[in-house]
Amino acid sequence: MKQLLKSLKWVIFWMGLAILFNLGIWYFLGQQKALEFLGGYLIELSLSVDNLFVFITIFMSYGIRERAQHRVLGYGIAGAVVLRFIFIFFGVKIVTMFEWVLYVFGAILIINGIKMFKKDKERDPHESPVVRGIAKVLPMTKEFEGDRFTIRKDGKRLFTPLFAVLCLIEFSDILFAIDSVPAVFSVSTDLLIVYTSNIFAILGLRQLYFVLEHLHERFAYVKYGVAVILMFTGVKLGGLMFGLHISIPISIGVILVVLISSVIVSVIVSKRKERDKGKGKKNENF
User: Fold this and answer.
1) 227 and which of 55, 113, 264, 267 could share a cystine (Cβ 3.0–4.6 Å)?
2) Residue 190: enclosing H or E segment and its boundaries?
């Protein structure tokens, strides 16, 4: 409970920092750019939730302890900051040169949103091609060595399985960026706005992870809210082809309503399940 409250305070801190930065954009660059930042930030933050559920699955599968989780997430976020810049920089260049790419992004987002409504087949992270490939290329220990990525043994530098987990986290973030970055393009193609909205959402992910780790069973339906947001941004991008333009304030409103609704539904359903379990136990006692 103490760790949960501490993580929650840090999540609020990073959100507050993003709001202050947004006010700075409003003051220096105007209302339109501030709305674009807010829209991009909300999209990135909401889509990040689904990616964090993937991280939870990976860590639980490998039995990674909390201290090691902190280290992996710290390095993972640092790597994401660099990779996102490269991804966004070239993405903005491509979109500026070839506007029709936005329509392709729109179609990808709609398809991926629909896929999220289907039940995922449970995949064992141990069987990931990323982990297996790293184990074949790099000299690796069989056991974890605390929170260390490498150790020196018999004069040789060996990598630990935790390094492979870090690579798997980074790889999953790259896959996640394929959805999230094009989604932000639905509200802005300004490099500064797209990158900063991504980074501010990413900076609080480590603390948000530990909040979700404690409460992920209560937020089971948030995934479907994220799917709706993906499809909405896809429709928004696709609509540009036909001259249909959805304003940023409306986009922000839709994202907030969908996200809040999915959280409320998740909490209601989880409480109902807990109540039913309690009744079931009472009946067993009788």
Assistant:
1) 113
2) none
